Amino acid sequence: MAEARPKILKAAAALFATRGFHGTTTRAIAKKAAVNEGTIFKVFGSKRRLYRETLEWKLGELADRSLPAQPSTPHDLVKHVIEAREQDPYVMRLILFGVLEAFPEFKKVLHTWRRDYYGRLGAIIEQQKEQGAIAEDVPSLLAAVALTGFGIYHYLYFDVFRIGEDIAISRDELTDFYYRLWRHGLASGVPHNGDKAEEVTEVPAVV
Question: Cα–Cα distance between 112 and 34 in angstroms, integer?
Fold first, then answer.
């Protein structure tokens, strides 16, 4: 029974991300996971519980990818937060379906995850403030929310609306510009790419 759990979760993530909670049946999950439908209920108890555990698993992975274990430079932090959403084909689709369906389990899981995620990201920003990489007067929570917003928009830009097909902007180019905005705003004299901005002394860091 234990070996069936990861197979069921993987199948559920794929189907919930493409069909939503209401459009996904336990029969379809069982077929994709190559298990008996009854096994799903033995392991998880209900479809609602399976959905909740699938969200918790995928959001947990997203947080771990987004937040470096060791303190990094502001530029590395920006890249971690933004690129983490591109590395899993399901997690952002699960979130979008959850918002559209307004399912109670989704709201509960997201609320708990968001509080933990912003707390962890804010702690990293606090470490960088102590190291002098980020200005002391920057509110860490607001900086965390703003940076996460860049990551969400980046995903929507390239993977949902696919605006990149019409406008010649690469993922890396836009990521580096997010860094400039997040760290220095639109001040003049700031390089557009990565940690070279650390060398600029005449422009005070906004974040």
Answer: 32
Q: What is the set of domains in the chain, with CATH numbers?
A: 4-199 (1.10.357.10)
Annotate 126-148 with DSSP letters as a single string: HHHHHTTSS-TTS-HHHHHHHHH
Q: What is the pLDDT along the chain (207 residues), one digit of tens a residue?
A: 778 999 999 999 999 999 999 999 999 999 999 999 999 999 999 999 999 999 999 999 999 999 987 767 899 999 999 999 888 989 999 999 999 998 888 999 999 999 999 999 999 999 999 988 888 999 999 999 999 999 999 998 888 888 777 888 888 898 999 999 998 887 766 555 554 444 433 333 333
pTM: 0.84
Amino acid identity of 39? Answer: T
Tokens 């998880």, located at residue: 44
CA distance 4 to 120: 32
Rounded Cα distance, 202 and 18, in Å? 49
Calpha distance 66→194 (Å, rounded):
17
Terminal-to-terminal C-alpha distance of the chain: 50
Q: How far apart (Å, rounded) are the C-alpha atoms in residues 26 and 162?
A: 32
